[in-house]
C-alpha cells in the first residue's frame, strides 16, 4: 500500500507519516520495485495508534516510547505463555 493509501487508512496525512519516519516513531517500510514505500497492515495499525496518541496531546517522541513499552510487555507475555505450554 502506498503512502497516500496508508495515510487515508490511518486518518493522517502523508506528511505526518514522513514526520514519524524522520523521528523514528515509525520504521521505514520496505520499498517496492519502483521505489515507493510499501506499507503493510502492521504499519497501518502502528500509524493508527500513533495518530490516536498524538491527537490526545502526547508528543510523537513520547508516543513512540509508549508503543515500544507496550510492545515489549506483549512480547514478554507471549514468551511466558509459550513456556506454559
From TrEMBL:
Q: Which keywords has UniProt assigned to this entry?
A: DNA-binding, Repressor, Transcription, Transcription regulation
Q: Name one GO molecular function term.
A: DNA binding
Keyword DNA damage present in the record's keywords: the answer is no
Question: Which parts pass through the membrane?
Answer: none
For this UniProt entry, which residues form the secretion signal?
Answer: none
Q: Which InterPro entries match?
A: DNA-bd_dom_put_sf, MerR-type_HTH_dom, MerR_fam
Residue limits of the HTH merR-type domain?
Answer: 1-69
PANTHER family assigned to the protein according to its UniProt record, in alphabetical order: MERR-FAMILY TRANSCRIPTIONAL REGULATOR, REDOX-CYCLING DRUG-SENSING TRANSCRIPTIONAL ACTIVATOR SOXR
Please report the name of this protein according to its UniProt entry: MerR family transcriptional regulator
Amino acid at each position: 500500500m502506498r503512502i497516500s493509501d496508508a495515510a487515508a487508512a490511518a486518518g493522517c496525512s502523508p506528511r505526518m507519516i514522513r514526520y514519524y519516519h524522520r523521528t523514528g516513531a515509525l520504521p521505514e517500510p520496505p520499498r517496492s520495485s519502483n521505489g515507493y514505500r510499501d506499507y503493510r497492515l502492521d504499519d497501518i495499525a502502528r500509524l493508527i495508534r500513533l495518530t490516536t496518541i498524538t491527537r490526545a496531546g502526547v508528543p510523537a517522541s513520547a508516543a513512540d516510547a509508549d508503543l515500544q513499552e507496550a510492545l515489549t510487555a506483549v512480547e514478554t507475555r507471549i514468551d511466558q505463555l509459550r513456556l506454559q505450554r
